[in-house]
Design a protein that fits this description.
Blueprint (H helix, E strand, L loop, with lengths): L4 E2 L3 H9 L1 E4 L3 E7 L10 E5 L7 H17 L9 E7 L8 H28 L6
Parallel strand pairs: 1-4, 4-5
Antiparallel strand pairs: 2-3, 3-5
Length: 130
Amino acid sequence: MAKYLILKKRRDFLKAAKDTTFVTHHVVIQAAFCAEKKDEALPRIGFTATKKIGKAFYRNRTKRRLRAVVREIEQRTFLNGVDYVFVGRRDTGYCPYEKLKNGAEWALKKINSELKNKLKEHEKNPDSAD
């Protein structure tokens, strides 16, 4: 059973796009804290591919590969109460799978450390606007 939920609403995708973004050669990962209780909520994950990638066949292949990568990544890598959006890039559908998986894991570690730093700053100074 999956230890995460799927993002489906456009507003959740847009919120993640506005907050924290990390770009690699093969994937873009966007993340934001969700409005629900941060510690108790499961992470939510969304997948997207723009028309810049190509026709529907290429976009579907890209999203399929991103979903497979997320299934293989250890679930403890994802923070509870965070929305993640995996955005496919032009070569996501055709790069070597191990390269895609390693890049996504590395990007997740980087984005999680940035989110943890934002949370610490917010706890120190809760009156400041994000």
